[in-house]
Amino acid sequence: PPDSLLSPDSHMDVQGYKWVRWRVWLCRLLALLTLGLLLILFHWRPRLAVLARCRSCPLALADVLLLRDSFGQQHVVEVLTEEMEAGSLDQLGQLEEDWRDTVQLHREEKTLLRYYLYEGLRYVWLDRKGAFCPVSVLNEDWTCKGLYGFQNGLSPQEQSWRRSVFGANLIDVPVKSYMRLLFEEVLNPFYIFQVFSITLWSIDEYYYYALCIFIISVISISISLYEIRKQSITLRNMARFITNVTIRRDSGEEDCVSSEELVPGDCLIIPQEGLVLPCDAALLAGECLVNESMLTGESVPVLKTPLPAADRTYSSETERRHTIFCGTHVIQAKGGRPGGRGAVAVVTSTGFFTAKGNLVSSILYPQPINFRFYQDAMKFLLILAVIAFIGTIYIFVILFRTNVTWLQLIIRSLDVVTIAVPPALPAAITTGTIYAQSRLKKRGIFCISPPRINICGKVSVFCFDKTGTLTEEGLDVWGVLESGPAGFSELVPDPTLLPPGDMRAALACCHTVTLLQGEPLGDPLELKMMESTGWTLLEPEGDGDAAHSAFGRHKVLAVMRPSTQRPQAQGTYSSEAVAIVKRFPFSSALQRMSVVTVAHGGRSALAFLKGSPEMVASLCRPDTVPAQFSATLRSVSSEGLRVLALACKPVDVNSDLLNIEREEVETEMQFLGLLMMKNLVKPESPEVINTLTLAHIRSVMITGDNILTAVNVAKSCRMVGSDEKVIFVIATPHSAESVPSLRFSVEDGAKAPRTTLTSSPLILQGLYQAGVDYHFAINGKSFAALCDHFPEYLPKVLMKATVFARMAPDQKTQLVKELQKLNYRVGMCGDGANDCGALRAADVGVSLSEAEASVASPFTSKTENISCVPLLIREGRCSLVTSFSLFRYMALYSLIQFCSVLILNTVKTTMADLQFLFCDLFLVTMLAIVMGRGGPSEELHPCRPPASLLALPVFGSLFIHTCTIVLGQLAAFFITTTQEWYIPLNSTVFGAENLPNMENTSVFALSAYQYIIMAVIVTKSFPHKKPLYHNVIFLCVLLIHFAVVTSLVLYPGPVFRRLFKLYDFNDMNFKMLLVAMAALNLLVCFVVELLIDVGVLNCLRLLRGRRPSKKQYKRLKALLSDSASWPPLDQTLSPTNGTVISFS
Asked: Of 386, 567, 599, 944, whose CB neighbour count within 10 A is largest?
């Protein structure tokens, strides 16, 4: 068996193979003998090429690798080798152990580095791990403290060796030449089939038809090549970025080098005026104001602060506030170098291993879309291929009995295949998506993944971020509750009315607001908070010596000066400024931020903390937290207010405040009070949520805010109805004092969730049976405990959970994936900042951003509210229905022509060249192009369109319509042969030589009507599309086609008779009979389609009995609806007890 290894770093199954010379030469010989067909097969199936030319071997000796990714797709890559510089082993031996492993791989006379490239990433061979690993593993053990060791810079030799291993710092999107693209496009199975068809038609002397199809194919290929190359160049221009940067060498000198030469470990000097960063880097000294909109879609600049020198392992994800990402724009850098200018950072990732590289890679190599519609389309093509095979055998047998030549026998038999399998089918079903994308663009919604438009039509649950998505971005200060010995004081509506003291100083200083050209810039919440105090933000000028001296020689980041116009309680004026000397930025995971300040003259130092009330209270001394803290917090949160708590503590002013640890600051604090801010729900939110509810699409809120605030907002925007109960899910993890527990508590008005429930027998008898609708609300801590300790309850909680509060960014992503495991199609709408992971994990991610296209999600909406969501779903449903219609039409078009050819070939005739051309180009192609133009319905209907082409209604309708087609054409044929003036065919000749004749003309006439009839029948409108009369162009084309075909049947004229090789029927009654038969065909098909639409075929399902749904959430819903014990409201559950409702 091959030496296979599932690499934990890459999540890929890797198998090694070595070239076998005699096998390679044998394959070359066979390729020659098969006229290149073997090479085409190898191009389509690279795995076969490897198995045919190589033998399996250990990975350490492999020349070629066969990779299987996590989606089951296989890729072939070649192992590359690179000669390292002489003496590099000895030098690298002084570095990490891993480096030595990397290069001591293959030691003959040279030092070779063995690696392969996959999706832009470099994987190197590590002896110690016995595997190819991403080159990023070489620095995965770096600690925050260890990164400061790179502050002195790398030597030129060390940098050169690292460059050999890590490669150039370049996100290089390959732009293939036109010749290469042409070669790959022509080898597409679709075009191979076209070449086969054109060759066959040319041999059969169908020159006009072959020439037209050839011209269309050339135009199609040209457009396709142009678009592919244009997209590649656009992406390359966006991704490829080379600039000159300044790095520090180990000698202390500073060099200006190309960003291509950067390697992990380089010490990067960021100038004061900033730059666009060409790599990921951890900030070591100074502060940087960074615009990250390119990555997140978030337009508010973020303040980055120096990395704490802790012993924990460095991770760019956990240290986001200290990491500057590739592609982001540093607007301003300060405080990191002599003179207070610029900043110092260390390069942590380069090339495709950066955040920008990761996003570019996700665009270049998107995840395969697991959508049933696309899978069924391929299966149906196989069914048509089987029909074609049967038709080929039939024709072969029929013609074998006649005296046709072997060449004619083979050509006629193979010709059936080109008719039954429509090569244009895959292209045709994308027409609806193209129209939908165009309409969305006009409405300000941009899409970078068009196949996901159809998936929008199947969304069953939509998740929303709260702040900035459901509610307004900006907040207004509503009031302050200051804590004291007797508890909370009276509400102070305006912070400027607070007496001078720690609370007012905390509101003024505890933020990361900075100045850019004299204007304060930062988080809208912090700006409002700071401005509400009336204090002024100042920043040190020049090298800041004057400011440092004024504050006890401490390095000053910013100065907060109080207003001099407000009298103190004692009647004096306060004009004493406070300096901010250290900032610990806000972290979603930690739910807090803090600063260290120094009083004027350096007399004393105070640390201030701001964050979620629960988190701040847990970090304060219990004796300083008022007894009524929980009750007060519940009261204000349930009114929908955004609540923040503040705390402070004295710090030793003589200690090293610049290098003080966060853990040392954020402990044993003194609780100061609560700040309440009003966050208004956007006027569009309730209307949109109501629209989704009526359409049976679940709405879920995922927020980092307080759970009671979130529940209040959920009620305000109608996620939770006024008559519906909210049940709080409270799960606790394992601790030294207690075992994990799970509890379900019902809210009681604005009070706390009840912990004991002895009343309300209505609730206790089971909420389903009582007819009481309810929603679960859960916070991040409980969600984590539920996932870890109560996984059996997780699906049941997710079924009814509407509010997820205090969720960290990675928990948002996890929630989306857990909902997908229940077979929900999940949509996610957010503003991009903390939602990137969830937006990309969702089936449909919508980022509300000013950017025209954000790489954070497949869809970007320029409207700053969620009104884009119903529009996107309506367009998705319209596109899916259109794709279904086009698929059925193309399938029926093939079957109509297939049937015509079989009937005519049976009696030794066929269709004329121009008859084929007329049907394929004039009738079918024109109808297929304009069929998808109808726009979406104005309303969202409760039922979703089907996604399976092999479902009974779709398959059943295709079968019944095919039967009516066959019967119609046979009726036209036999009615013609029974006429008294009928003249039989000349049986001594075959095919086009028998034209014109009566059988051909009557069958062609009826089949031409059938193409038009089927276009009308399969074009669906209600309830997901606008009525048919809105698609004016389609109606006009239908009328023109009907008029042209009718004129060809009734009054063809000598010119058209000669061109189309039509027989001149003199009997007008017979011609009218053909038109009447077409009308009857239309009526029958219309009635059949109407009956199928109302569900007549569903009665066949009764014969097989009722089967459970394939969707897990539907099966679970059915199980829970029969359970009188769910949810268990009056008990505390542990991981080992409790009834588990399971499903398979």
From this structure: 944
